[in-house]
Specification:
Elements (H helix, E strand, L loop, with lengths): L12 E3 L4 H6 L7 E3 L3 E8 L4 E8 H10 L1 H8 L3
Antiparallel strand pairs: 1-2, 3-4
Helix pairs in contact: 2-3
Amino acid sequence: MAKVCPITKKTSLMGGGYSNRTRATQYNPTGKVRRYPNFQTKTIFVPELNKSIRLTLSTRGLKTINKNGAYATLKKAGLL
């Protein structure tokens, strides 16, 4: 699975929470957690090229393709 969306350039982030007790005393901190974007593997048909392309995209990237069209979005991202 890809770690970066080629359209939105989304990648994983480091995160982690602290309990209220930790904030009060600075004792026993919680561990770090890596948070991943919502990646989906989709086959997208590009009518201008008359072929399908299989991509791993974030859901925001899929919405961008639905809004602007497959050919324009993929060309702008440098995938065509």
